[in-house]
Structure formats: C-alpha cells, structure tokens
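Following the same procedure, the fold was encoded as tokens, giving this record:
***
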Amino acid sequence: MKNNLIHIAISPTVLASLIERKYLYVVDFKCLNVTAKETVWALLLATLKSTPRHKSKHHGKAS
C-alpha cells in the first residue's frame, strides 16, 4: 500500500462526540479544506466552552 492515509467523511456531531469523549484528538487528523477547518475550529471552541474547568489551588502565584 503506497499511501497509509484513509480519506473519510464524518458528521460534525459524531466528530464532536469523539473529541469530547477523548477518543480522537485534533493531532490525529488534518482538515483537507477551509470549510472543514472552520467547522473543526467551531467544534473545538464549543467543546472547550462546555468542558468543566478544574480550579487551581495556587492560582499561579508563588508561595
């Protein structure tokens, strides 16, 4: 096999679910056009906004 890449199409909903569940990471794929890139960016931003954040005990300050 010359090329070890598989080109597939996936719905934004399924992609978002895979990213949210940490089954797929953005470093594992690349967008093949501008529309796909914009859609993935929007999904990532939405995922970050909906992900609970852990509060730091130190808030980055030195003791």
